Amino acid sequence: MMENAWLIPLIPLFSSVILLIFGKQLRESAAYIGILAVLVSFICSVIVLVERIDAPTYKQEIVWLVTGEVNITAGFEVTALNTLLLVMVSLVSCLVQIYSKGYMEGEKRFSIFYTYLGFFTFAMLGLVLSPNLLQLYFFWELVGLGSFLLIGFYFYKKEAKEAAKKAFIMTRIGDLGLLIAIILLFWKTGSFDFQEIFSSIGAGEISGGMLTLIALLLFAGAVGKSGQFPLHSWLPDAMEGPTPVSALIHAATMVAAGVYLVAVTFPIFSASSTAMETVAVIGGFTAIFAASIALVQKDIKRILAYSTISQLGYMMLALGTAGYTAGIFHLLTHAFFKALLFLAAGSIIHAIHTQDIYKMGGLWKKMRLTSPLFLIGALSISGVPLLSGFFSKDEILVSAWVNGNFLLFWIAMITAFLTSFYVFRLFFLIFTGQPKTEVVSKESPFSMVLPMGILGILAVCSGYIQTPWFGSYLGEFLVKGNKFLLVPAHSEGPAWIMAAAAVFSLSGILLAYLIYVKQTISRNFLIKEGSFINTTLINKYFIDETYYFTVGKTVKGLALFCSYIERFVIGGFEWAVTGTIRSLGSAGARLQSGQVQVYGVAVFAGLAVLVIIYALTGGLIR
Amino acid sequence: MTFLLSVLVFSPILGILLLLLTSKQHESNLKMFGFIGTVPPLLVSLILYQYYASGASLADFTIKNNWIRFGNLSQYDAKLFTVDYELAIDGFSLVLVLMTALLTSLAAFASHSIKKEWKGYFVLLLFLEIGMLGVFTAQNLVLFFLFFELTLISAFFLVGKWGFAEKEKAAYSFLLYNGIGSAILLIVIMILFARAGTTNIQALTHIITIGGVPTIAPISATMKYALLVGLVAAFAIKLPIFPMHRWMVMVHVEAPTPIVMLHAGVLLKIGAYGMIRFGMGIFPEQFKSVAIYLAVLGVINFLYGAFMAFIQTDFKRVLAYSSISHMGVVLIGLGSLQAAGVQGAVFQVVSHGLIAALLFYLVGIIQEKTDTSLISDLGGLAKTVPRLSGWLLAGSFASLGLPGMSGFVSEFLAFLGLFKSEPWLAAIGSIGIVMTAVYMLRAVLDITFGKEKEKYEHLTDLNWLQQIPAGILLLLIVSIGVYPSLLGEPLQRTLDAIMIGIGR
Amino acid sequence: MTEVPLSAYLVLALVLFCIGLYGALTKRNTVIVLISIELMLNAANINFVAFSRLGVTPSITGQVFSLFSITIAAAEAAVGLAILMALYRRKKTVNIDEMDTLKH
Fold first, then answer.
1. Which residues form the NADH:quinone oxidoreductase/Mrp antiporter transmembrane domain (chain B) (predicted)?
2. Beta carbons within 10 angstroms of residue B359's beta carbon
3. Residues 6 or more apart from A146 whose CB is under 8 A from it?
4. What is the distance between the alpha carbons of residues A29 and A23, in angstroms, rounded to a whole number?
């Protein structure tokens, strides 16, 4: 199957094209085609994963374009990291497509939705399989297009339009960094190919400063895609898209592409300590920054979006502190529990048609299936012992500790506390207390509950592939046979970290319980309503406003400046030239009086002058 | 076989004859014959491509007949001061000829929106096609110039008579700017002819680059620079390069849409073609030393066009400035003097031709349906005309350089080249890549997304016939984007020759 | 019989030409202007004939030329008068000052 791994992305593309052409006729049965295609992809991915466990990396390429003396190639590659991501992406995509069948029911553009989903899945799977940076960039942008189309799915909503535009443009700013990094790498190493780039870096062919620059530019791409500070603000806005999309793209797959990029180019980063530190610091800062915003938001999807940003920061922190396995591990577990949380949120929104958590309440008894599944997700993300999030978070904390960066370690610890607090604030406000809306809420259909159930199981179990107790299968699988990856499969840290992490997360839950259920502690205990900090947090640190007044105004100003040049400098010059010619012309025209005899006199006078000159000079003018 | 190129260039005459025999009033017949007239060149160019693809040498198609002799110097050299009728084709020309033939057919197809005097319109359109095909196959500068002028004259009338509100102004602006360009070009050609005694491109290349051939009068090094600068200036107006671009914006706004498709798709490319074929081809040494200025101008064009497009209120103006911006990419590629960069420039010539034609085709339909192209007047079109909006969105993504479409390949290659030779300049220029997304999405999303306007509730969507041109263009754009060797292969030999010329 | 010298013919032609020129440039009546132009043409004819007989290389060409010139002058007068007639019918005047429709 590994030789035919290239089929995995193409199947969803094929379904997407079919749906684009025949969507109108198929109506809601479009879902079956989409689901079937991605299911086949998923099965193939699993087969490839199983084969890869005992086989070396497989790679196949064709010449894509000859430029100068260089052949640019395209192809696919089956590495350890690839296969894991293949399985994760196709699984989540498959589950989300099943879920969408229920969620999007009655939507007019049902088949279009599945067209987009198929296209996105194609792009994401293609991204994962890319054997070189150029191809990765190729799919990287296509993924962005898929995300753009799906965020703007409700195109008639102004917010959706703005959000789609913002998402595309902000990620493109990061992508520019990635593009420049790719070009620089090409000129320094003569290739786009990962293996060749890593070997020339290993041979020390690139100077340290250049390497740092390249790594930082690559990271800029990751920052854009993964919604890291300072390019994070598109991700919460992207929640304007349908909720299954948020689960698939803006929680599990596309936003993780940034983390994947750093992981896949890890040898470049690990060769530059400055770059590693930057990754770690940006990751750590984003983690606590986004978590703090999530504390006060009231839109359920936005809270989850900030939580995603925060968790992605966690992953970056892991990678920046050389916790390669930890980063990938958290990427996988996060994909499952965050997708679960989003789908559960979608199920709630589907039932009561609001996203404001202050308008929810008392849903525990009404949604007998959604509620426990949401709880599983919430427990897992909070890092409650024995669930998947607990193990992956522990792995990250250990790697930060081992790396010796204690400030970042404690930031990560506090973030863990904040995370469990805001997630359970969400949980208690939605599911406990009195119902605040009259809407009769009922449980969602089976097609929506089934994917949540599967994700629930994964959110519980997926942690056991890498535990300090049973062995680090994941780490060994990733590190084995990869000669460019100089990291241990598992970092050993002091045992108290695990205990401390558990205490931090449980105390977050406890605090949320005391505030929002028991109400023994005032809601103003942490942050006073109306205080400066509260306004700042509700307004997300005024980042959007800052961008509007700096970047937005600068671009507008430059554009106006250009139009002044156009109008006054170039236009003025044109005016001067045409004006001169025009006035010369009208002066000449005045001579033409229409009086034939005047012309005759002029001719005669001219002749006379010539004759006089002739006579004076005595012959030809010399 | 040698007759094939003559047939190619002059085959539109068939259509012209057919049109002349048709009554002035017969609207539908005239439109049909006008379209039929563009089919023979398309077929011939496809036959040529077929020969090429099956491995035949394109050199077999070269035509060379005696034509004009000036003076009586044959006792010295039989070829001295003669202008031959000579046509030839290579990979680069072939690609452009194919594109010209295709775009003219599509433009004739899109001409159903023309409201008056169909006879004159289609006759001029076919003359325009003769001019364009001739420009890409002519092998000496005089013949090139004649065809070049033919395009100018027919385009002038097409813009001035069948355009929108300010058509006359636009047509005169077009004529004046291009007239200046032509004049400079003619001076350069005449100096070369007077001094070298020939205008054959190969002979001139040999005389200028290698030398050792006795000429009527010597061409000094300074004069070579002056000639190159003249050539570049002449083609810069056509391309157009900042600050000589204002005519082009006016033409794009005022000309009838099928003509804009051709203008943006092919006529602007003559500037790029001339710069590559004559500038780089005949004066490689001199070109190398002015390349940096071209690169700077290219970056200015790229950014200036992008910023201007950002604040336009008329969608056609957005597209016009976007064309200016994208022509900057051609200069960036050429100015880089790298194999990748030059390849990018050539790719951009083709790619932008297709993308601009697609976008103007669509904007023409929008204007026909809604009587406006002002962004603020439009909005929410995706609700009532989803297919039209879908094509428009696809076109705009092609324009902003999305991978998988041809625009990405050319932009990427051009910047790949420039980052090698001028990294800082390239870094500044690359801001334009983001700006392209900004202005393009702003304009297109304001048109298609958002709340639908009541007055557009009853618009009818594209029928399958109207989707054919868009489909063909998008298919080509995507094919080149997904597998660029499709285009890279025919261009390879031309590019190699150019790169050897500039010694890289 | 002494031959009339060349200069006499030339002076005659000169006088005729000057009279014609004066008339063409100053007279208000268009008919007189036309007649004056005929005078100038005839002055040229005299020169042709004179040079054909008394020039450096005498030949018949000059006389042939003068015949051509006379014919053309006749044709020209016909066309000129026809135009004048047409103009007169329109404007009811032959005053040349009023015929300035050719101005810019």
1. 138-436
2. 30
3. A116, A119, A120, A123, A124, A249, A254
4. 9
Handedness of CA B164, B167, B170, B174 (dihedral sign): positive
Q: Do A597 and C96 touch (CB under 8 A)?
A: yes
Confidence of residue B354 (pLDDT cuts 50, 70, 90): very high
Average pLDDT, integer, range B301-310? 92
pLDDT of residue A526: 66
Phi, psi of B371 (to 5 degrees): 65, 20
Assigned domain for B335 exists: yes
Closest CA to A459 of A391, A409, A506, A413: A391
Does residue B378 belong to the interface with chain A, where contact is any CB pair within 8 Å? Answer: no
First-to-last C-alpha distance (Å) of chain B: 35
Rounded to 5°, angle at Cα A339 from A336 and A343:
135
- Domain assignment present for residue B412? The answer is yes
Q: What are the tokens at C72?
A: 């053309």
Domain region containing B464: 283-504
Give the rounded distance of the alpha carbon of B411 from its chain centre: 17
Put simply, the chain A residues between 496 and 555 with a CB less than 8 A from any chain B CB are 555
State the CB neighbour count (10 A cutoff) for residue A153: 19
For chain B, say whether A348 makes contact (Cβ under 8 Å).
no
> How many domains is chain B built from?
1
pLDDT band at B125, cuts 50/70/90? very high
Helix (H), strand (E) at residue A65? strand A58-67
Any domain includes B295: yes
Q: Could you read off the pLDDT of B223-254 as tens digits, one per residue? A: 889 999 999 999 999 888 888 888 999 999 99
pTM greater than 0.95 (yes/no): no
Residue of A nearest to B490 (CA): A66
C25:A604 CB<8 A: yes
B504 pLDDT exceeds 60?
A: no
| Residues forming a β-bridge with B82 | B69
Cis-peptide, bond into residue A230, ω within 30° of zero: yes
> Are B437 and A69 within 8 A, CB to CB?
no
**Helices (runs of H) and strands (runs of E) counted in chain A:** 26, 4
Query: What per-residue confidence (pLDDT) applies to A205?
Result: 81
DSSP codes of every residue in B475-504: HHHHHHHH-THHHHHHHHHHHHHHHHHTT-
Mark which residues 115-174 of A lie under 8 Å from B by CB: 134, 137-142, 145, 152, 155-156, 158, 160-161, 164-165, 168-169, 172-173
Q: What is the DSSP string of A508-537?
A: HHHHHHIIIII--S-TTTTS-TTSHHHHHH
CA dihedral angle for residue A325, residue A327, residue A328, residue A332, rounded to 10 degrees:
130
Binning pLDDT at 50, 70 and 90, where does residue B186 land? very high
> Would you state the pLDDT for residue B259?
92
Which residues have CB under 8 Å from C60's CB, separation 6+? C52
Tens of pLDDT, residue by residue over C40-72, are 999 999 999 999 988 888 888 889 999 999 999
A179 interaction partners in chain B (CB closer than 8 Å): 412, 415, 430, 433
Residue B230 lies in a domain: no
Q: A354 is written with which tokens?
A: 């609001």
With touching defined as 3+ CB pairs under 8 A, do chains C and B touch? no
Neighbouring CB atoms inside 10 A of B54's CB total 7
* pLDDT score at B460: 83
Mean pLDDT for the stretch of residues B447-462? 82
How is residue A582 written in tokens? 């025009």
| Span B288-306, average pLDDT | 91
Regions of chain A where pLDDT drops below 70: 437-441, 489, 524-527, 529, 619-622
For residue C4, pLDDT beyond 90: no
The reported pLDDT for the residue numbered A441 is: 63
